[in-house]
Amino acid sequence: MSAAETRQGAEGDVSLSVDRVVKSFGDARAVDDVSLKVRRGEFVTLLGPSGCGKTTLLNLIAGFLAPESGEIFIDGAPISGLSPFERNIGVVFQNYALFPHMTVAENVGFGLKMRKVGKAEVERRVQEALEMVRLPQMGDRRPRQLSGGQQQRIALARALVIRPQLILLDEPFSAIDKNLRAEMQVELKTIQRQVGITTIFVTHDQSEALSMSDRIAVMSQGRVQQLSEPIELYRRPANSFVASFIGEINRLACTRRRDADCVLLEHGAVRLRLPAARVPGEGTGDSMLYVRPEALRAVDPGTPEANLCDGTVDAQVYQGTHVDLIVKADNGWLLRVREPGFDALERWPVGARLGVHADLAEACVY
Amino acid sequence: MAIDGRRPTLLPWFIAPAALVAMLLVASLAMLFQYSFRAHLPGTLDVGGFTLDNFQDLGKWLYLRVFIDSLVISAWTAGLSLLLGYPLALALVRCRSPWLKAAILIAVIIPMFTGDIVRTYSWLIVLGTRGFINGSLLGLGVIDAPIPLLFTTTAVVVALVQYSLPVIVVILSAAISHIDSDYEKAAASLGAGPLSVLWNVTLPLSMPGILSGTVTIFAWTMSAFATPQLVGGGKVNMVSNMVYHLGFASFNFPFAAVLSMVSLLLIMMVLALLGLWLRRLERRGFAG
Ligand SMILES: Nc1ncnc2c1ncn2[C@@H]1O[C@H](COP(=O)(O)OP(=O)(O)OP(=O)(O)O)[C@@H](O)[C@H]1O
Ligand SMILES: [Mg+2]
Q1: What is the pLDDT of residues B115-153, one digit of tens each?
Q2: Superfamily of domain B58-284
Q3: Chain A: nearest CA to B280, how far in angstroms?
Q4: Atom 6, ligand 1: which residue's CA is nearest?
């Protein structure tokens, strides 16, 4: 049984459920019929290009916006009737939004004060939260006296100290420089696992999404295109948008034709045969074959190993850990073939003839 | 295009008009200053030689009283303008409906374009013994005889508040619009209800605007003339009215100059205090 199946569990394990939610601004649907279920303690990332509706969806969950239709459930209870301050959801903003007129400790304690928690208890829990984000000495400072990364951690502490049912983070690392970002990613993930809190994380950095998430929801034009685990998303993109959006991929034009329980893909002299089960839809006609550079291998031309096509090396791109060969296939395709190490630099010089082997189990057709 | 790095610049031309006005202002202040040290020659428009006598009269209850009244009226006007202006400014900045926004803006700003004489006369029409309020109350039988509304300190304050409202709303809404709404959202997500957000976040963060707005209204009310002159009808006197009276009824220019200098000094002190206060707020992390 795969990890995904084990975790599926009972309905009672669903922490957040978004059910057919729609939100428009004027004529444009910013969130268009979105449904998703997030399990307790799960880390789900909303990933997508700018303007695809990620922030709008977060605002709907937090209650800063009201959906036109659809309902959102937290721990099984509908929350559309609740104002943001009645929802018990922690939010971390892109610019941190730490109150500048309060000290760090007052910031972290704000949510507890609103909940009328006793003074001693507030003090204890604030200190605990500051220790959790490894800034126990900073309580008396003002937010503007902290670095960006420290402010980020305080914002996280402030959101977690109220023990919310759910935490929402909208591109929390986009204002942090690259080195610190990697550190913060690890730190957030560690804290998230420790606390075991259900997390919705927004980013448009796909490597961030792939490395941190239990599952990723790829969004485009207000819709969730695919919600899967990172590996599944990368290896089995649900449609051409997801395939092109995540990672690098070769898009190879071809015509497709049904042949018994197989699908025939043709382009020029190339003919490929894939089991029909691997190709969604019944369509005949123009299609695209999607295959990742690392699913391709350079082999001697004209051999049975060269199961995709033959061609010529057009360029070499050295990337440190690997070499990308840009190959001009005899049928007109332009492919990127990824060879590990640097041997390929000598073995396949520019202008050399080569065959391309494809691991067709890793290919998709749309 | 000069290449030697000394590009011809238009800057002096932009500054010139302002510099001219400033020079005139300084010159007239200097005149005022030296008038306050000259002897008053009753019955003439001329002034005599150097004297410090003018400053002795300052201590007289008659004049002290005018200063105290002016300070009290200015304080009330500033406080009430703030109380009425803040909600309006908040609504103006935060309301979502463009229609409501436009309505507030028009209602608040239009009176600014009517000029203070016109506005003040309309207060005479509203507050007079045969005015709108007394007329309505009499007509409804609530009162038997008109109540004196005009020529009272209250009436002057009311008229001054109306006069000041557009200005303070503009100052406050500028300050409020600089507050990132993420602060308010963050507070709400942490469990703060609307009133709590206002009290704990929006109000403290608009402190710089509140201070400068209130002080601006205070300072400019200190120098109000037309409103207390007309609505006060001689029964309510502020510094400007006294200066006018001294200058153009008694032709006592030196003492009028003394009163002007003192009120200028008062206003400058208030502004200096504001500056200090704002700097302290800024140090404590308020947006500023
Ligand atoms: N308050 C608003 N009024 C009008 N249109 C809006 C508003 N907020 C968002 N939109 C529109 O809704 C769409 C989705 O916006 P949203 O902010 O959710 O995108 P996003 O995925 O968060 O993008 P980004 O990655 O740039 O933050 C966009 O087309 C945007 O222009
Ligand atoms: Mg966004």
Answers
A1: 778 888 888 889 888 888 888 999 898 888 888 888 999
A2: MetI-like (1.10.3720.10)
A3: 12
A4: A25
